[in-house]
Amino acid sequence: MHVSDCIFCKVVSGEIPASVVASDDECVAFDDISPQAPVHILIVPREHIDSMDKATGSHGPLIGNLMLKAAEIARQRGFADDGYRIVVNTNGDGGQTVFHIHVHLLAGRPFVFPPG
Predict the structure, then answer these.
(1) Does CATH place domain 7-107 in 3.40.50.880?
(2) How many other CB atoms are found less than 10 A from the CB of residue 35?
(3) Which tens digits make up the pLDDT trace of 36-60?
(4) Three-state secondary structure string covering the chain
(5) Using CA atoms in the order 101, 88, 24, 64, what is the torsion angle rounded to 10 degrees?
């Protein structure tokens, strides 16, 4: 489902250009336009799901694919051995600003925990 006012739906459909790093039948990965690390890639499903809070059991394989795509990109880009962070922000207090579920793949510097 394409939501007309969703920026990530527009990226997935090609209406908004993006620096795509990977894609498959279920998702598109592209460089974040406001990176928070030397490597900051967003992985979004082609299907519009507002947030993890709106995901259901039927979305399990799709959400798993987002995580596996992040690991695949990390290996292909050569930073898997050094390490990376995968983040999914959920709703306002969780830091979500675009309400189309997405995975942040961050790498290229050390990260601390807790993130803050």
Answers:
(1) no
(2) 14
(3) 999 999 999 999 999 999 999 999 9
(4) CCCCCCHHHHHHHCCCCCCEEEECCCEEEEECCCCCCCEEEEEEECCCCCCHHHCCHHHHHHHHHHHHHHHHHHHHHCCCCCCCEEECCCCHHHCCCCCCCCEEEEECCCCCCCCC
(5) -110
**Do the bridges between strand 103-107 and strand 85-87 make them parallel or antiparallel, or are there none, so unpaired?**
antiparallel
Amino acid, single-letter form, for residue 21 = V
pTM: 0.94
Can you read off the two tokens belonging to residue 99? 């309400």
Pairing of strands 103-107, 39-45: antiparallel
Token readout for 110 is 């050390």
Q: Where are the domains of the chain?
A: 7-107
Active-site residues: which are they? 102
Does the pLDDT of residue 116 top 80, yes or no?
Answer: no
